[in-house]
């Protein structure tokens, strides 16, 4: 029961600080992202409990729960991609404004923006790989669910993981 209360508190807290978002749409998208993530956690936990035999469900119910979990995962990734795309757009706008404001000055700021643009673009590409992976895990008939072979899906997931690890170290080194 305390876990449910914690989840509700986290959801209510998700709106805190949203008044600092650049637009109302960004604030709403942030709250929706938090709602999807908060819904995913207990559903995924229930799937795991079923898989290890602690939770008893009919096969049909377990199948629906697993499908719903995967849909929430894909939705969370899609929302993250939208947020990242918005961030890239703002960075481009900032870069253009900086270029117009000072033709010769601001080289360090421009370089920093360029690095952030590259990193955000790589994150967007990684999110596309993750979305492809998530939707490939959906049952047949759901977009391209089960249409990509398991070897290719594993290669997509591995590539995404390698990019994620490389991004961790790149951000530490490039954004000092």
Automatic annotation (TrEMBL):
It is found in: Peroxisome membrane. GO terms for cellular component: peroxisomal membrane. Pfam families: PEX11. Keywords: Membrane, Peroxisome. Its main location: membrane. The keyword Cytoplasm does not apply. GO terms for biological process: peroxisome fission. It comes from the Eukaryota. PANTHER family: PEROXISOMAL BIOGENESIS FACTOR 11, PEROXISOMAL MEMBRANE PROTEIN 11C. This is Peroxisomal membrane protein 11C. It comes from Spodoptera exigua.
């Amino acid at each position: 029961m305390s876990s449910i209360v914690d989840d509700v508190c986290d959801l209510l807290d998700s709106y805190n600080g949203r008044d600092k978002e650049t637009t109302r749409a960004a604030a709403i998208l942030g709250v929706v992202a938090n709602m999807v993530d908060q819904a995913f956690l207990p559903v995924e936990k229930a799937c795991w409990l079923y898989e290890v035999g602690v939770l008893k469900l009919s096969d049909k119910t377990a199948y629906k729960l697993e499908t719903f979990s995967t849909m929430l995962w894909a939705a969370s990734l899609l929302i993250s991609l939208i947020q990242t795309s918005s961030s890239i757009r703002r960075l481009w706008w900032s870069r253009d404004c900086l270029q117009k404001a000072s033709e010769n000055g601001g080289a360090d700021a421009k370089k920093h923006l360029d690095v952030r643009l590259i990193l955000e673009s790589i994150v967007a590409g990684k999110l596309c790989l993750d979305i492809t992976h998530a939707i490939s895990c959906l049952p047949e008939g759901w977009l391209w669910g089960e249409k990509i072979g398991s070897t290719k899906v594993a290669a997509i997931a591995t590539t995404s993981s390698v990019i994620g690890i490389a991004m961790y170290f790149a951000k530490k080194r490039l954004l000092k």
